[in-house]
């Protein structure tokens, strides 16, 4: 153990925690006085705040199917992978209410794509337009400004609230379908504990002084007002952070509702749990960062949540915010009810599907009515003739795309260039791998010969042991 570690204060691995308030949290799908959005008219303000802002940059001109086809074919080469992402993206082909997938790169987050497909395929009461669109299913956005001339759908991105515009990337946000937000959580207000509460993880892609970590450290010194805990530490930060605070015990999302004030702090990107804590009938103290989901721009501070600065700034204000909320309990209760009603109206699965359908309608409109006809004629499948069928099965080779002869020839040339480039890359990689194997084999042969020679020489029986020591561990 180093000197620095030895000087660290003795902090127990698991902290002593006050038991949650007694009683059962009521979980319901309906509550008197609450209503859920059922039509696009109900979502009109949500479209204005969010969808219109995302689509504005693409509506400045008309787009052709040829341009979309070119973008799909060169996507993997022109759109860089995020340095922390896994590089998963696919073309989703939506026809007659059924979504099929053609992977453009990766497949690691196949489960997330499966959730998107299940949501669309299961929406029998909604008619989705036929469409073909690219989805980035990584947490991290990839469309660095200028790299994506056409919309790429994603679930998280950064937004410059002060300028009212994209920050670094220009994806179009779509709802998250791998989480469910149908339940209302209720616990008597006067029995809720008057503390700020959080349970979260510190992930490897987060900075060590993330808002979550800063608040967990602060909570150690102010247990009378804060119960902010980290339940898991991932990645290389594990050794550094375990000396700063004790790990907290797990608490179910239902039991979160037993505290009056919930803290929502970002992870690697925006926190998907925000929707759940908005439904908990508690005041939400939300970190004010650039990361957003599709609906964030409709949330209003001090109406749906209490703004909390990010990073070290959160530690400077959270205690005073808790004191302020304790001092005006009636206002705090009204804020919690307002947030819960808003979240129940706009964030369950059906309103999310309505929002996504409208997003696809606006996306199709960019192509002046050509999209539906192109999909009907199996145009997207024709971009992948070497594949023969879709990842999820298309029933055989697709018919010709709805393109002119010149456009079809252009697509063929693009595909041929792509194949040649891939062959060169694979050939180069194979040659380098063979050269490395040959080099390693020669080193092993020389080493074996040297050992044999030294063993035969007088006084040389321990020579090979000295060579092993020189190489050091892990070098053979």
TrEMBL record:
Transmembrane among keywords: no
Example of a GO MF term: transferase activity
Positions of the Glycosyl transferase CAP10 domain: 127-357
Protein's UniProt keywords contain Repeat: no
Listed SMART domains: CAP10 (SM00672)
Keyword entries, A-Z: Transferase
Pfam families with a match to the protein in the record: Glyco_transf_90
Family of the protein in this entry: Belongs to the glycosyltransferase 90 family.
Protein name: Glycosyl transferase CAP10 domain-containing protein
